User: Fold this.
Amino acid sequence: MTETEPPGAGPSAPPYLVAVLAFCGVVVAVMQTLVVPLLPHVPQLTGSTPTAASWLVTVTLLTGAVCTPLLGRIGDMYGKRRVLLASLGVLVLGSALCAVSSHIGVLIAGRALQGAALAVVPLGISIMRDELPPARVLPSVALMSSTLGIGAAVGLPAAALVVEHADWHTMFWVSAGLGLLDMALVLWKVPESPVRTAGRFDVLGALGLSAVLVALLLAVTQGAQWGWTSGRILGLIAVAVVLAPLWLRHELRHSSPMVDVRVSARPAVLLANVAALLIGFAFYANSLVTAQMVQEPRSTGYGLGASIVVSGLCLLPGGLSMVALSPVSARISAAFGPKVTLAVAAGVMAVGYVVRFFTSHQLWMIIAGATVVSAGTAIAYSALPALVIRAVPASETGAANGLNTLMRSLGQAVCSAVVAAVLANLTFQVGGRTAPTLHAYLLVFLVAAAAAVLALLVTLALPGRQRAAATGPADGAAAPGGRAPAAVGEQRA
Assistant:
């Protein structure tokens, strides 16, 4: 049945919808960083190797990258609330597996399931666009998008407290409980979105995209361990290079593609995704090096010898700044457009890294620099989905924001590989152990600042300021298969 009112045009939104979806986003984001404080202890706790332990992070990145655009597309076609609940159910199952076992294989399987739940964030953004009045879309989407950073900043110190003071399985039991609470809240307060994308699911396109992503991400994340010129890495890169054009050709010919390549190739969408990749890189460097840097022993000449808990707490002010700044970002976007907001954010992140470059000797200065970077991240993460929303039809919101979230994940994967390479190659011997030099950390800050500056330049190249219509599709946007965009009416369930 087709109705004439635009999405979100109802008299009011369901009560507590935004709060419930944002809470889901925070819980899912916490899962992404949950095991970071535990990683140094995993080989001893599980009888495994450090290489096997590193897969607790790698597999989450892989499944999150693959499942986010796929589940976003499935939600657009078959019901966003339904897919949201399924994603949360997978998170609960993965958490329960990790909670009941100390076998490294089971833990990796559980972490893979937890990673699949990253699709909750773009699905939540899509539901907000469909259900909220136009005036509430920008601030609500800004909050939902920033939950990725908020959860990461809150998750590290919380997990560190558990590692130091309780059995490590406890944090997985807690995450399973939070996932069940999320599911109950969604069933209670989140309605099924009525907007649907017509057509049939592109199975071959989904398989092709998954294969390209897995090959590319495995090459990026495992290059340092396997050797960048090893047969495995070169083979993975070859697979990605061969499959990518075949996948693009299939998508261009399919009547209901997994990713609408024509829409994604438009400057407004393409440049927003490139900016997302660079912002993801710049954001992740802040999280990766802050905790490690302050934990380095004082004998290094720069380390502070801080505990795991203290190092995690260094990121907490940044998480709080993300909560505070997401509505500010929405106001800037409403007044000047998300392009201006993203440019400001990238500039703030670059300034934050300049601060970190010159103030890496005292704890309060490290916290201040990390908080400035987090503030820029909050503004950027809040602006990115607004750029995407303005450039795609409402029926494509889940898939388009899933792709944008994927680009952030790719940026984080590349950042992880770059940081690992820098810290592993610029080292010195101190106190009978090998440690990164101060110059290694400073180089990471310079590279991250360069990524933020590149994001600023990409943002400035975006099409000029658009009107502040928060919910309608971009003018002239074409849906898959050449469907005209439904600026007023969408196919309703």
User: Anything to note?
Assistant: Residues 1-11, 466-493 have pLDDT under 50 and may be disordered.
